[in-house]
# Entry
Amino acid sequence: MPRVLVIEDDPDLGRILKASLERAGFPARWERNGVAGLTALREDPPDLLVLDLGLPDLDGDEILARVRATGDVPVLILTATRDLERKVTLLREGADDYLEKPFHPEELFARLEALWRRKVAGRRYRVGGLLVDREAQRAFFGERPLALSPTELELLALLARRPGRVFSREEIVAAVWPGDPPRSNALEVHMAKLRAKLARAGARGYLRTVRGHGYALVEPRE
Ligand code: CA
# Structure
């Protein structure tokens, strides 16, 4: 079972969460503030993170930004807000899911299990003859390895996660350069290089530019 780190300052909720997660089979660690949470993330990286937004020392947003800058642990946010815009922002900033307080522990377990399934299944993506192995940081077209830079591989992996879906420029920038958007047309330059490398390997027509919207990876029709 995946190991869960809970960062929650409410002592009753923290205690209940740790105990009930462990009863449900998730080995759990509980930290009561942002600084201790960041230390735990660094020293004992969990498989899943449950993060309360309102902490006494650091903002949950700040922790989320730091987590996203350094890794891809799935993050479920606990929030008291009913503000839809705020939740959309959190998802854009790299949260994988959120739960409104108060919630039922069963719902938390179900969501954590779903996040874990997605993560385990989500390490390799196949679109037509393209295979992106994010964990091994490699990509292939047929048998042929593609010589991609880490950024190109991240871009390809992001698009390959949902073949056919158009990712907006903003979404791509938020996912690939969290908290540190590149200047001017860096995304376009990386995409052009990626497209050229795909074409050189024979993977033509996979990377689509949807003018005014963004980019998509598709399996081209013969
Ligand atoms: Ca709180």
Notes: The chain has a mean pLDDT of 90.
